[in-house]
Amino acid sequence: MSEFSHISSNGEANMVDVTGKAVTTREALAEAFVYMNEEAISLIQRGDHHKGDIFAAARIAGIQGAKKTADLIPLCHPLMLTKVAVDLELQAAEGRVRIETRCKLDGKTGVEMEALTAASVASLTLFDMCKAVDPGMRIEGLRVLKKTGGKTGLWSA
Amino acid sequence: MSEFSHISSNGEANMVDVTGKAVTTREALAEAFVYMNEEAISLIQRGDHHKGDIFAAARIAGIQGAKKTADLIPLCHPLMLTKVAVDLELQAAEGRVRIETRCKLDGKTGVEMEALTAASVASLTLFDMCKAVDPGMRIEGLRVLKKTGGKTGLWSA
Amino acid sequence: MSEFSHISSNGEANMVDVTGKAVTTREALAEAFVYMNEEAISLIQRGDHHKGDIFAAARIAGIQGAKKTADLIPLCHPLMLTKVAVDLELQAAEGRVRIETRCKLDGKTGVEMEALTAASVASLTLFDMCKAVDPGMRIEGLRVLKKTGGKTGLWSA
Amino acid sequence: MSEFSHISSNGEANMVDVTGKAVTTREALAEAFVYMNEEAISLIQRGDHHKGDIFAAARIAGIQGAKKTADLIPLCHPLMLTKVAVDLELQAAEGRVRIETRCKLDGKTGVEMEALTAASVASLTLFDMCKAVDPGMRIEGLRVLKKTGGKTGLWSA
Amino acid sequence: MSEFSHISSNGEANMVDVTGKAVTTREALAEAFVYMNEEAISLIQRGDHHKGDIFAAARIAGIQGAKKTADLIPLCHPLMLTKVAVDLELQAAEGRVRIETRCKLDGKTGVEMEALTAASVASLTLFDMCKAVDPGMRIEGLRVLKKTGGKTGLWSA
Amino acid sequence: MSEFSHISSNGEANMVDVTGKAVTTREALAEAFVYMNEEAISLIQRGDHHKGDIFAAARIAGIQGAKKTADLIPLCHPLMLTKVAVDLELQAAEGRVRIETRCKLDGKTGVEMEALTAASVASLTLFDMCKAVDPGMRIEGLRVLKKTGGKTGLWSA
């Protein structure tokens, strides 16, 4: 592949025409990391209920974010996601929270942007809830881990 | 500061009450980087019009994203942004595009989440447009650079 | 059935995976009642045009609300509704307006949440338009009346 | 007061002009009840984490719902909420969950529709998560409990 | 005035910074016309209730559209509209419906885009409801009639 | 055809039931014109980058607008567009910009409202960016050019 699919020959942004494409089951996994200071890490660690609501808010926001992908990213097609999962894991030794997302659908185009958007919105929500304690957090390593389905089949990082 | 402002004493997610806070001019800067392979870098580099529409789409999506912050992040207040700027710079030697965003308002609460959301959506849009050439891109270093205004005044990374 | 489908074994909110489910015609009916004082009832009763625009606004808001269900309810799947109907009936003797909604689609998951959301938004719109006359209104009896389609087939209240 | 504020003299739906009104601190409380069968009640009761994520999802959806009020209810003005709170309480003996919401802002118009919308969306989210166990749930008693601020001052149910 | 306010000196789309601008009462009027064939005109004319719901739907959609302006037009600021009015008049002799809209707010930037968006969405809604009878309708003459407030004061077409 | 499909026999606004309709490939073309004064025309003409970002913003807003059709027009069904194209052409001699849009999907209902909405939002975005130079612009001739697919097959203006 040697050209951007979303830019036409005269340089204009362009929604790819997927009208003729086959409906197949497609799935994508993405991940991101939120790095924070020790105080924030230990506040998340302390007490299940704290982590519960912080992680629940990020998880729910990530799921909702996946459904808004076509509204956020101009050239994305509207899609009928059949599954969105957002998992958060505190990796205290590394000073970070790891977020992994998974999206699925039976459709004509892949769902990696949906998985990335879910991870991005979950990360931002976590940032929002912890920023009073550590305004210097960083969101790192947002990328696609794996995608399956469609003409290209399996791709993994 | 030693507690998460968005989690109440019994562990529940909680929108901070800003009713009594003063209206001041607030501003926030954020940045992010999108790393991509040489082929993607050189396609962006080649020809102004190509870069034009790719960067224009990311810039516009970032501006629109900033305005959707309260819709994406559950505990953010609705805000009346008075300015959103999104700048993209191709840093070919580093194999990346740098995105810098700036948000302003006269209001009762800070705009760092808006600046981060703008940077995040601009990054995702860039990813979407280049993913046919490099599906292995990574979004890195999303963070607040500086914020001013409000009771805490200047904070910088 | 003995477990919540939307809560995973470790207690986390969870969007049900409907990827493998069959596409069938599904339909759901819901109802709600808005109770109001005599003055509000008689103002609605007086003159067709009054009732016309009050009921038209509630009907249109209810239809629009049905289409926003996946945006409002975190674990709902995005759906392609093929029909939404919202009917309002003034039941003056009972001091109330009855709202009945019906949603349909050919899809992989039921539409009862869409019917309930339509009834809910229509009720709230009616409340909004009558609240200057009766701020003490109550919305009661919002429930599913019947649903058909899918693996479970017919269910009725 | 003897006429609907939202219907003009010729019977047309009408957004009230609040341009000239004073900015005051306004607050509204609303409540709703979700009635469910014993199996659903005891599943919510069993284990903190279960209740945690079910209640967290409803709380977050309710907060997000309050921010969407002007998008859902046609004649509502866009508002800058400064506080939204959604509290859920399991009242097992009564076979129900009680939802209480509170909205605040410094603005030109009241926030009772925002409090009602928050309660409504939180109720619907609870319904969605429990419907596999009890599809016959009912949402009852959605009403305003109290509102303060503005020209009319305190109103309570 | 000799340059586009929304394009920076290096040609990039740019949200105008209104942070320092004064809050004044601003108002804008816009109009549009929907031309249709005789059959559509006479169906609208026949019976009040028909016209009622067709015009009510267009009016409500137009009001809702005004509130979505900043979501639709990339460089528009989010605004707190204090009044939106949408009026429709059947001008049978001219074979058209005239739509006039009016928006108001106390704010830092004008509301002509909101008035235009209201007129545009009301026109499209009318088109949608009549297109089965006349798919060849045209929407013409969408423009600003008058605006007041702000530094430039009164402007009229 | 002799009755409005969206108005029921008792005069109420009504979403057409498309549950039973066949899935076919459907396409629609629409156009609109934005008339502006010489100064605005020559500013658009001058320099590729200027036109680039102005046209890019309108093109992207138009694409995004098409995806919001069911949110804007009350009785439109939610659709899964497979292609949206928005083309702008400066017709300096005629003192106008011509906008042509094209929408496609495999679905149960036509996409002419989506094409019209794309053209409408692109026009409004162009208006917004040029209004500082010419507040007297007019949007004219918004109409469907052609539609194909479905039971009625080809229709052209």
Characterise this structure.
The structure is a homohexamer of 157-residue chains. Chain A is α+β, with helices and mostly antiparallel strands. Chain A has one domain: Molybdopterin cofactor biosynthesis C (MoaC) domain (Alpha-Beta Plaits), CATH 3.30.70.640. The first copy, chain A, contains four helices and five strands. A five-stranded antiparallel β-sheet of chain A has the order 2-3-1-4-5. The interface between A and B is large, with 62 and 62 residues. Chains A, B, C, D, E, F: It comes from Reinekea marinisedimentorum. Chains A, B, C, D, E, F: Its EC number is 4.6.1.17. Chains A, B, C, D, E, F: Belongs to the MoaC family. Chains A, B, C, D, E, F: Catalyzes the conversion of (8S)-3',8-cyclo-7,8-dihydroguanosine 5'-triphosphate to cyclic pyranopterin monophosphate (cPMP).
